[in-house]
Design a protein that fits this description.
Helix content: 40-55%
Number of helices: 19
Strand content: 5-15%
Largest sheet: 5 strands, parallel
CATH class of the largest domain: Mainly Alpha
Number of strands: 5
Shape: globular
Strand order of the largest sheet: 3-2-1-4-5
Order of helices and strands: EHEHEHEHEHHHHHHHHHHHHHHH
Structural class: alpha/beta
CATH architecture of the largest domain: Orthogonal Bundle
CATH topology of the largest domain: DNA Cyclobutane Dipyrimidine Photolyase, subunit A, domain 3
Radius of gyration: 23 Å
Distance between the termini: 61 Å
Length: 464
């Protein structure tokens, strides 16, 4: 009897519960990835499409080495999967659960069951299911620290990672596949992905290499260096986790082993993994997290964006070096250091009074790690309207942030070479330099931006 494994955000062989279950099935196996076109699904951004192309290529090669074939289909999964089931006599379907399109998946599952097909779904993406991470009264957490404590107390329930199957069932020779290149996931005319190619190796093998390097070179200084964009102090695992090229359980257990062996800084790494988990809990219980403020009163917030300010921010021309360096790093590499993400997001929503949804949308298009849960939850956190959010009146001073976290200006000069002649600390306030620089003046003085934000917040409070 033929089985089918439907891949989504789980593009790996190691510790892949759905693949392991499908591999134990007695009979041929179809492994399919569907480029889904459906109104319930958010189209991928450009940077994510670039990553996806290379990730699928990598996985296809890995499967071919094991005698299997990765089938590519494009269209509506509600139509494609039942048709494949009928065409190839599929009797069992496997997939990894996802949490941003639950209704769609339930509808597909119901359709397949009416066809007499067994459907088995498994958790390949999270440490624990969102419905297993609730408060004692059965309600979801809205504050991170209690969520972290609860999950850490349940660490014995987190499954250990499993090895990749040693053998895979044979493919169905007659199964028709589209050509991945025909999907046009890679940018052309212009090809803006040169910086991405230079920065990233994509795929499961690259994820394992990156993780090994992090554990041996960066974990022992992680808590100290993770906020320094001028240092290679972070894991940079986020795109690999987003596309499931590395198992979250592997990352957790190896981090936990280091922590229990006496590496105190590993706790900070574990907490970052749990922030991702917390974000998915928020998304599960609030499906419109990317568009609607978690705190509904913020739907009345008096945003007051000025013409062209969004474009100026997007292009890294605000006149604040730490902000502009971050935006240019994002455009060039498809990634931005987490501390700088907070600074740039705060600047957009507070200094410029531009709705957080517009920033979230830009990051969705330009980040290789644009994640359904983390992107939205983090933008809401910075904007002050999310769960356990930073208060709206907490407004990052981009000058002080630059001086504190990029003290010698190394990060700024990497992405703003026009500021290379300046030394710290003036590199973070180049308007004080007597040198003639091809760099814009601040789009808005810091104090004026802060005052505008505070006034808007007072209007919101008084409107309640």
């Amino acid at each position: 009897m033929t089985a089918l494994l439907w891949l989504r955000d789980d593009l790996r062989l190691h510790d892949h519960p759905a693949l392991i279950a499908a591999a134990a099935h007695d009979g041929p196996l179809i492994i399919v990835y569907i480029s889904e076109h459906h109104p319930a699904l958010r189209p991928l951004g450009g940077a994510s499409r670039w990553w996806l192309h290379h990730s699928l290529n990598s996985l296809s090669d890995a499967l071919a080495q094991r005698g299997q074939t990765l089938i590519f289909r494009q269209g509506n999964p509600e139509t494609i999967l039942p048709q494949m089931v009928a065409d190839y006599g599929v009797r069992q379907v496997f997939w990894s659960r996802r949490y941003h399109a639950l209704t769609l998946d339930r509808d597909i599952k119901a359709t397949l069951k009416t066809m007499g097909v067994g459907v088995k779904t498994l958790n390949s993406h999270l440490l624990l299911e969102p419905w297993d991470a609730l408060k004692a009264d059965g309600t979801p957490y809205t504050v991170y620290t209690p969520f972290w404590k609860n999950l850490f107390s349940k660490r014995d329930r987190i499954p250990l990672p499993q090895s990749a199957p040693k053998t895979l069932p044979p493919p169905v020779a007659a199964c028709v596949s589209e050509d991945l290149a025909s999907w046009a996931l890679l940018p052309q005319n212009p090809d803006w992905a040169g910086g991405l190619r230079q920065r990233w190796d994509v795929g499961e093998a690259a994820a394992q290499t990156r993780f090994r390097d992090f554990l041996t070179q960066n974990l022992s200084t992680y808590a100290e260096h993770r906020n320094r964009p001028d240092l290679d102090g972070t894991s940079r695992l986020s795109p690999y986790l987003r596309f499931g090229e590395i198992s979250i359980r592997q990352a957790w257990h190896e981090g936990l082993n280091a922590f229990e062996a006496g590496e105190a800084q590993a706790e900070t790494f574990l907490k970052e993994l749990v922030w991702r988990e917390f974000s998915y809990s928020l998304l599960y219980h609030n499906p419109r997290l990317a568009t609607d403020p978690f705190r509904p009163e913020f739907s009345r917030f008096p945003w007051n964006a000025r013409p062209n300010d969004l474009r100026t921010w997007q292009h890294g021309k605000t006149g604040y070096p730490i902000v502009d360096a971050g935006m240019r790093e994002l455009w060039q590499t498809g990634w931005m250091h987490n501390r700088v993400r907070m600074i740039t997001a705060s600047f957009l929503t507070k200094h410029l009074l531009i709705p957080w949804q517009q920033g979230e949308s830009w990051f969705w298009d330009t980040l290789v790690d644009a994640d359904h849960a983390s992107n939205a939850a983090s933008w809401q956190w910075v904007a002050g309207c999310g769960a356990d959010a930073a208060p709206y009146f907490r407004i990052f001073n981009p000058i002080l942030q630059g001086e504190r976290f990029d003290p010698d200006g190394v990060y700024v000069k990497t992405y703003l070479p026009e500021l290379s002649p300046l030394k710290a600390p003036v590199v973070h306030k180049p308007w004080e330099s007597p040198s003639r620089l091809s760099y814009p003046a601040p789009i808005i003085p810091h104090q004026e931006g802060r005052d505008r934000a505070m006034k808007a917040y007072e209007i919101l409070k008084s409107s309640g």
